[in-house]
Amino acid sequence: xxxxxxxxxxxxxxxxxxxxxxxxxxxxxxxxxxxxxxxxxxxxxxxxxxxxxxxxxxxxxxxxxxxxxxxxxxxxxxxxxxxxxxxxxxxxxxxxxxxxxxxxxxxxxxxxxxxxxxxxxxxxxxxxxxxxxxxxxxxxxxxxxxxxxxxxxxxxxxxxxxxxxxxxxxxxxxxxxxxxxxxxxxxxxxxxxxxxxxxxxxxxxxxxxxxxxxxxxxxxxxxxxxxxxxxxxxxxxxxxxxxxxxxxxxxxxxxxxxxxxxxxxxxxxxxxxxxxxxxxxxxxxxxxxxxxxxxxxxxxxxxxxxxxxxxxxxxxx
Length: 317
Hints:
alpha/beta
């Protein structure tokens, strides 16, 4: 089995040497051939210098440098589109995903399976971060209909031909897992060992996860628009009922002076519903506007393919 390992890199100058060394020891025994693609996602430290040196030192390693920070999923897509072999493995750069667990994922990639997620034996994050992560996965499962969403992780292996299903994916808001769900339903999971983060701390804070969830829901689903429609229907039913009550009281002579409470309540209720609807519609209009500007998913500034041949690439590669 020929395998391409894609690693998005950000502030990982200290961990990359050990990661590439571990991969170089494990992969020759687990595969018939392999390559390691280090995608440096606009890291402000010397991650690119380290990745470039590793590409020159290890002939199976290539390094891509993006023009700026585009985000983890965009960096992964850049690496996946550059992959040359039949199977792709994606993993983090912080040594939380041990190289010796890759054979476990590859073993689970049987003939009737196209995508395997590595599921940790136990939670590797704190309680708040884990809870936020579970909320994001629940949103993907319910609103985006992503199969096995609750087992999604950044440690994954899939057949490279699945990338054909998101050739048209463009723009700054990308999700690897949603894109993969467009291409296959043959998804499995494998229990793997996860390690603690070796250096620094994760850039995925609870706030970032919430923003990612909002991007997923408004970028890949019309469910919020449907919810606005439900809200409008409920408000309309309530308004008709309230109108009927007022007419009835007027008919039986139960009303005297027009009630300020009733008017204020109606104004508050329907104004709130309108503002909520406008907010959701605004998110969609904003996504459409962002997409219409032609912003790229990523831009590759340089490449290092062993012999350090720099290249300039723009667009979506």
